[in-house]
Amino acid sequence: MKKKGKMFTGWIIIGFALLFYIAVTWEDLINGDFLTKGNVFMLVIILAGIFRLFTWRNDEKAKQDELGKYIVNKSSVIGYRILTTLLFFLWITDRFLYNHSNEFGNLFLFLGFCISIILLPIIQLFISRNYH
């Protein structure tokens, strides 16, 4: 299948996902629940699919070449650092604004922040063992 055909197929899938999202959100709006966790999560998944479609144009070979691997590697490290920083600021904000009762603030947010700090070094350790 040609590149344009694959891209068109990707847009059809995204279009159906958007229609499904609109239908579910409309039904929730009628029932009085507009902004539910499920609606937000579906929107995030659809937006991620759109960004992937714009980035790779539904071409799996582009991700496997040298430039594609470099882009995936660089974006993963940048995304990891941004996520760790955002988790830290969210934890600090939650700690000072909403939860003064205990030492940690929101425990799950704190644990997520701690896991995000040690995740990359652990993965790098296991990957580096393959080469040593």
From TrEMBL:
Keyword S-adenosyl-L-methionine: no
Secretion signal span: none
The entry's keywords: Membrane, Transmembrane, Transmembrane helix
Keyword Glycoprotein: no
Transmembrane domains' residue ranges: 7-26, 38-56, 77-98, 104-127
Top-level taxon of origin: Bacteria
Name this protein carries in UniProt: ATP synthase protein I
